[in-house]
Amino acid sequence: MNDQTALITGASSGIGFELARCFARDDYRVVLVARHLDELKEAARLLHQEFGGVDIVLLPFDLSHPQTPELIFAETNERGLQIDALVNDAGFGETGYFTDTDMDTELNMIQVNAAALVHLTKLYLRGMVERNYGRILQLGSIASFSPSPCQAVYAATKAFVLSFTEAVQHELKQQKSAVTMTILCPPPTDTNFFHVAHAEHTRAASHPASAREVAEGGYDDMMEGEARSLPTVSAKFNFFSSLVLPDSMLATLMNTQLQSARR
Hints:
Largest sheet: 7 strands, parallel
Keywords: Oxidoreductase
InterPro entries: NAD(P)-bd_dom_sf (IPR036291), Sc_DH/Rdtase_CS (IPR020904), SDR_fam (IPR002347)
Number of helices: 9
Distance between the termini: 52 Å
Protein name: SDR family oxidoreductase
Pfam family, one: adh_short
Radius of gyration: 18 Å
Order of helices and strands: EHEHEHEHEHEHHEHH
Mean pLDDT: 92
Oligomer: single chain
GO molecular function, one term: oxidoreductase activity
CATH architecture: 3-Layer(aba) Sandwich
Structural class: alpha/beta
CATH superfamily: NAD(P)-binding Rossmann-like Domain
């Protein structure tokens, strides 16, 4: 055990679980946060199976509730856990025309993808800056770089995460802090995202990246203190496309990816 602790939200599956694997492999204590205790227990079982006596703390909390970040912070403080690495992975999407999608789902999405991320960052970053040590990984997306018709709110939350992260990165440099913050911007990835977002049959879901590949790329970049992680060739292509193409064309391309692959 290296006596460091990582807290990962959305840790029961997908990229979050694979990031938890990376920390467990490197002998971190891992604090796993997700909504369902049974899924957290299964994630812990898999980590114990692979890494033996890794220290695992399970926190079943729902980040769609505005008070949840304070509850998580209070719980880690009560347990005497100093969080050395924070991973804000939790998030979900919804697919469809904005006029047709459910308002409550999208307000919850804003809460989980953006508000909870900011709240947890605020709570844990202050201590990191005081200690002059810590790492934060924020989950963005290739959707951070362009408007995405039929996932308008989801893409907007990821654009928010990008802008927020880059601003705080600059502040940390101004403060001459050793704390680093990295934004991970994966392409469509083989997780439960497409099922939750009702996008299983779209072109974007037809050739997803590996969750392990994405997580390991993001983890390595976070450990190197990189500002941005583009973990696959597809992610890099999307980013560079956003630098040269107008938003109207980017929106058309993103919309094409969200059309049915069955056509």
